[in-house]
Amino acid sequence: YKQCVEMDISSDENYFSHHEDDALKQFSIDLTSFPHDVSERWQEKGLSVKQESDQTQLNKIVSELLLAFKLTKLEQLIRDNAKIMEAATDEADVMILVAKHKKLEELRVAIAGILGRVVTR
Question: pTM of the entire structure?
Fold first, then answer.
């Protein structure tokens, strides 16, 4: 793949599934194929199985990971802001930091809610 990028060759899944190296070809096919299908009997009995496409699943996973990353970063910002608030002596600065802390907490609760997590602290 790295060589394809360096030589500016388009390399989609078909490139590797038709590669001259049999081991690479088989590996590519194994990675891109799903070995299981929904039985026709389920459909005959009127049972439906909702299957999400790989792209839909990937989009969902990536979105959740990004939100989890944002939540982790927000929690770090909240801790950092709390340390700065403890050291602050000027009342005006403290008020600004408290307002910032409140906004960060609101964002944290919102993102945790989307992820289905409970905020305890």
Answer: 0.55
